[in-house]
């Protein structure tokens, strides 16, 4: 015979661990401690890259403005570029030639305070074609004689040359037909005093005009010496930057 026996089953079940369901309330003397986040390192590499890019862009802008203003002829608005023709009488040659006509192109740079004049080959001769700059900021005038391929520098004569603003107003009035310049000519005589070796002190506009050309200094004669003209080699440039025509005669030293 086989005897089968059963183990008694306990009526009590083992208690589950309910620690997870318990809510712990801190006492008054206890302090809450919040978790502290770790600080991320500041991206110094990105900051340096952005700063370097800003410096590079500023340098590029400054360099572009410098090159544009000093090495390229800026485009002028139409009301600052003039093509002028003036009829005048020369008291010396009036019986032979009568009235004469002078033609030139004038550019007036009000912001930079200088004037640029281009005189083409005259119809009646007696004068050389030339490019002229009157720099009121530097107080200098430069004549580039195209026929001789030489530059001449002298002090700006504000008695004969109108300032840019005044000349601009004059030419605007002439263009509108409300005012006509007087028709006579004034003579001035210059003599060469020496060679100019460096153009840096003459300003960017004269430097651009006379670059790579023989350049000489001029001195204005207070009294014309007609007797010495026969022994000197002289040439003339006629130009217009006032209510009259000016003939600048340049004589080389013997």
Automatic annotation (TrEMBL):
Q: For this UniProt entry, which segments traverse the membrane?
A: 44-68
GO cellular component labels:
extracellular exosome; Golgi apparatus; lysosomal membrane; plasma membrane
Q: How does it sit in the membrane?
A: Single-pass type II membrane protein
Q: Where in the cell is it found?
A: Cell membrane; Lysosome membrane; Membrane
Q: Where is the BRICHOS domain?
A: 124-218
**The keyword Repeat belongs to this UniProt entry's keyword annotation:** no
Classification via PROSITE patterns = BRICHOS
Annotated signal sequence range: none
Q: Which GO terms describe its molecular function?
A: amyloid-beta binding
UniProt keyword annotation of Disulfide bond present:
yes
Q: Name one GO biological process term.
A: negative regulation of amyloid precursor protein biosynthetic process
Keywords for this protein = Cell membrane, Cleavage on pair of basic residues, Disulfide bond, Glycoprotein, Lysosome, Membrane, Phosphoprotein, Signal-anchor, Transmembrane, Transmembrane helix
| Annotated SMART domains | BRICHOS
Chief localization class? membrane
Q: Which residues form a coiled coil?
A: none
Quaternary structure?
A: Interacts with BACE1. Interacts with APP. Interacts with STMN2.
What the protein does? Answer: Negative regulator of amyloid-beta peptide production. May inhibit the processing of APP by blocking its access to alpha- and beta-secretase. Binding to the beta-secretase-cleaved APP C-terminal fragment is negligible, suggesting that ITM2C is a poor gamma-secretase cleavage inhibitor. May play a role in TNF-induced cell death and neuronal differentiation.
In Swiss-Prot or TrEMBL terms, this protein is called Integral membrane protein 2
